[in-house]
Design a protein that fits this description.
five-stranded parallel sheet; binds xanthosine-5'-monophosphate; GMP Synthetase, Chain A, domain 3; alpha/beta; 18 strands; about 500 residues; single chain; Rossmann fold; 15 helices; nine-stranded mixed sheet
Length: about 500
């Protein structure tokens, strides 16, 4: 994306790298990660205002440890090296790095030794977060020590060159004034702090116009925050040339399809709703294995889109609401596949469509800011995350129309009661799951033998881990009474008290 002012973060592999770009954007300067293996010629084409060298798992002495792009030193750009980035900077400029006798991991303190604009507004002694084995032992020429921790140089700088190094991580919340230090660096680098959601919309709209060159674009709307914001953004850029498809697969929550049509259709987006409930039910017929369900649903989506797009050879692009964390998660084979996250992934290759992913550099809360900038209501922006395969993964066992009906009814009760009590603030997700288990009950002196609903409500920051919401007992009792009274085929309600891990948020 062509943002007027940008800071590039060279990605040396630290687990905190996402946070660096994020903090810089919070300061009001556009930032993104780049691969340091790219040539400087290529990187400098993005015309960065400054460069940050991130931390990473390597030692500068490891065989094949990534180095500085040739050309960065001569570029005259301000540079901030963090952890591995500082060691790399020190070594490549002629200093010396040694394995630390004491490794520093976790909370630490540093003392400012020399006045520097990098530490403007900070105290002489500050808390920080360290995670390093090696340390800088001898400074390169022109560098001065700026701060030290108990066991290492904590900060170094070459003020004329505007090259600085921090041994600790300013991007994590455990370094309480880390963001102030980053902001000081950006100030030193001459940044103007003009980046915000409005600029993002302006720049991205321009870029989409240029990229699509008058051609037509399709978008698969799911009703969720990401695809809605992506569609609204592309619509702002190309208007009528955007063709949204909204597949009603019957696996959405009660009232959801109508709401999407009302809100997005009401904004003038060109949306075609495709009723495909029966088709998805047929695809799921007799299937109870969770991964098989996801696969069948994914295939059915692709087939529906193919049929729709077959008549539109003039469509050359597909919009997807991919976010930064999705990009990173799918970037490597680092973790085992717990669940295949479903989207219309196979479609672009099969249809030879080019992808348009205008949100791929943003985090969820930044997407919400962009959505607000575009005038989307909170009803869309503050929605709970909802899995692509929809209610099918909240319906363990086989998915049949009457089971889906029961699940939708129970889910509506859970949402209504939690929202009425104001208990949804701070929850990540709250929903119902219909279990393929029958239990005996008694209603109006009659024996019942019906299925069981499990209520799930969790708190989470990023869905990687989650804790059970401590819902009020009276609220849970109201939910239970209403579900059993109002939903046919259910006579018992449980509250799921399993955190993630060991559970996952969804049941399948
Ligand atoms: P789990 O169940 O793995 O879910 O703890 C983590 C988060 O991801 C959502 N989820 C999905 N989202 N496609 C999606 O777009 C999927 O297939 C999918 N499966 C789970 C889930 O709702 C939770 O927020």
């Amino acid at each position: 994306m062509q943002h007027a002012e940008r800071v590039l973060v060279l990605d040396y592999g630290s687990q905190y790298n996402l946070l660096i770009t994020r903090r810089i954007r919070e300061c009001g300067v556009y930032s993104e990660l780049v691969d340091p293996a790219r040539s400087w010629e290529e990187i400098s084409r993005e015309r960065p205002t400054a460069v940050v060298l991130s931390g990473g798992p390597n030692s500068v002495y490891d065989q094949g440890a990534p180095g500085l792009p040739t050309g960065l030193m001569e570029s005259g750009l301000p540079v901030l090296g963090i952890c591995y980035g500082m060691q790399l900077m020190a070594r490549e400029l002629g200093g010396h790095v040694v394995p630390g006798t004491v490794r520093e991991y976790g909370p630490a303190r540093f003392v400012v030794e020399q006045d520097s604009p990098l530490f403007a507004g900070l105290s002489r002694e500050e808390r920080c977060w360290m995670s390093h084995g090696d340390r800088v032992d001898r400074l390169p020429e022109g560098f001065v020590p700026l701060a030290s921790s108990e066991h290492a140089l904590a900060a170094i700088g070459h003020p004329e060159r505007r090259w600085y190094g921090l041994q600790f991580h300013p991007e994590v919340s455990h370094t309480p004034h880390g963001k102030a230090i980053l902001k000081n660096f950006l100030q030193l680098a001459g940044c103007r702090f003009e980046w915000d959601a409005g600029h993002f919309v302006h720049d991205t709209v321009e870029e989409i116009r240029q990229k699509t060159e008058g051609q037509h674009v399709a978008c698969a709307l799911s009703g969720g925050v990401d695809s809605s914001v992506a569609a609204a953004l592309v619509h702002q850029a190309i208007g009528e040339r955007l063709h949204c498809l909204f597949v009603d697969n019957g696996l959405l929550r009660q009232g959801e399809a109508e709401q999407v049509m009302e809100i997005l259709g009401g904004r003038g987006l060109n949306i075609r709703m495709i009723p495909a409930q029966d088709r998805f039910l047929r695809a799921l017929d007799g299937v109870s294995d969770p991964e098989a369900k996801r696969k069948r649903i994914g295939e059915a989506f692709i087939r529906v889109f193919e049929e729709e797009l077959d008549h539109r050879p003039d469509i050359h692009f597909l919009v997807q609401g991919t976010l930064y964390p999705d990009v990173v998660e799918s970037g490597g084979a680092r973790s085992a596949t717990i669940k295949t996250h479903h989207n219309v992934g196979g479609l672009p290759e099969r249809m030879r469509l080019k992808l348009l992913e205008p949100l791929r550099e943003l985090f969820k809360d930044e997407v919400r800011l962009v959505g607000r900038e575009l005038g989307l209501p909170d009803r869309v922006l503050m929605r709970q995350p909802f899995p692509g395969p929809g209610l099918a993964v909240r319906c363990p066992g086989v998915v049949r129309a009457e089971r889906l009906e029961a699940l939708k009814g129970a889910d509506r009760v859970v949402r209504e009661e939690i929202e009425k009590a104001g208990a949804h603030e701070g929850l990540w997700q709250y929903f119902a799951v219909l279990l393929p288990v029958q239990s005996v009950g008694v209603m109006g002196d009659q024996r019942t033998y019906s299925e069981v609903v499990s209520v799930r409500a969790v708190t989470s920051l990023d869905a990687m881990t989650a804790d059970v919401a401590r819902l009020d007992w009276d609220l849970l009792a109201r939910i239970s009474t209403r579900i059993v009274n109002e939903v046919r085929g259910v006579n018992r309600v449980l509250y799921d008290i399993t955190p993630k891990p060991p559970g996952t948020i969804e049941w399948e």
